[in-house]
Design a protein that fits this description.
The structure is a homodimer of 180-residue chains.
Chain A: H1 3-11, H2 22-33, H3 39-46, H4 50-62, E1 66-73, E2 82-90, H5 95-103, E3 108-115, E4 120-126, H6 129-141, E5 145-159
Antiparallel strand pairs in A: 2-4, 2-5, 3-4
Helix pairs in contact in A: 3-4
Chain A binds a DNA duplex (30 and 30 nucleotides) through helix 1 and helix 4.
GO cellular component, one term (chains A, B): cytosol
Keywords (chains A, B): DNA-binding, Transcription, Transcription regulation
Pfam family, one (chains A, B): AsnC_trans_reg
DNA sequence: TGAAGAAAGGAATCACATTCGGAGCAATCT
DNA sequence: AGATTGCTCCGAATGTGATTCCTTTCTTCA
């Protein structure tokens, strides 16, 4: 075995399931905003050397904390200025097949199964209201689609990927009694 | 003026407002899925040399088609397994102030003003249902918040950033009559 | 047909990612 | 207590890929 491999194995020990320390969370926070940072720059921001942050980022990837690195495209600038959320009521039917078919469309950005007075929630970004109409038509052509309600986005004040921070205060017990 | 600057200026001619050709759209499509690709690899996928794609990517950034490059964090793996959409009914009030305050919370991922039977739509990712409770409490403490309806996500089948593709067929006129 | 502008490719340069070896530090065992 | 083991850090060295420059080619327009 080449020396490099052996070292690699030794170094990768204990990659699994470890709580995030402050360094990790800061790194995640920075990368969630700008993944184009150099390791040197990132290191100086969190107070570590480039090799150290490199090691940590590698670990964060390996353990699934970082799922990937993507370029964020501007909807309007790339020809899809129209954004809408669509609530879908379904009756039985093979959801997974329907979802897989929908996922093929680049207009579909999110598909969630939700609790509440509706069943499924879609996030759709498309070229125009006409395109949304076409998409709804396709939806209704699928089996088990009972009804839809569309919420057309007029303006977007915030839109970003998951952030690293956690507001601890939100979990404090509410006003009067401390639950369990 | 140094030679490099002059060259840069010459090279940056015509950066503004040009329609995306097939190369651009393919590049955007690839980068929206994986921004970690090397220019050489990207070039071989679209059929251009590394310097050529580099030039185009630079242009796509400069013209705002690419807003940024980010690391995609896994919600559950980073301590926020709880996802919900919250519809908010507001009465008058200074929305922008409220929105700015909300944006401070890393739990808030999206804030849209929408048309439909509700006013504002929030995407919230937090640690627990208790945290959502805490967030709603903060919401109600703000002026002009009339009511909220929360849709708790049970499972997510698809979640991604804006894609480059456009399904032309969606814009075709519907069944019977050709509009306009 | 000729001239000019834009874009691509090849080669060279430069910056940064990545690796390596060693040192510091904490926890565990003797 | 002292030693050992394992982990993570850092500085220096290396390699790869980003970036630049220059030339060539293609297209467009006079």
């Amino acid at each position: 075995m080449p020396n490099s491999e052996k070292t690699e194995i030794i170094r990768n020990k204990g990659l699994e399931a470890r709580p995030l320390d402050t360094f990790d969370r800061t790194i995640l926070g920075e990368l969630a905003v700008d993944a184009g940072l150099s390791y040197a720059e990132l290191g100086s921001r969190v107070g570590l050397s480039a090799p150290a942050v490199h090691e940590r980022v590698k670990r964060l990837r390996a353990t699934g904390r970082i799922c990937g690195t993507v370029a964020v495209l501007d909807g309007p600038a790339t020809g899809k200025p129209f954004l809408a959320f669509v609530h879908v009521d379904t009756t039985g039917g093979s959801k997974s097949r329907t979802f897989r078919a929908l996922s093929e469309l680049p207009e579909l950005e999110e598909i969630h199964s939700v609790a509440g007075d509706t069943c499924t929630l879609l996030k759709v970004r498309c070229a125009s209201s006409r395109a949304l109409e076409g998409l709804l038509a396709r939806l209704y052509a699928m089996p088990g689609i009972k009804a839809t309600r569309s919420y057309v986005v007029l303006s977007t004040y915030l839109e970003r990927t998951p952030q690293a921070g956690i507001t601890e205060a939100l979990e404090e017990p509410p006003m009067d009694e401390a639950p369990r």
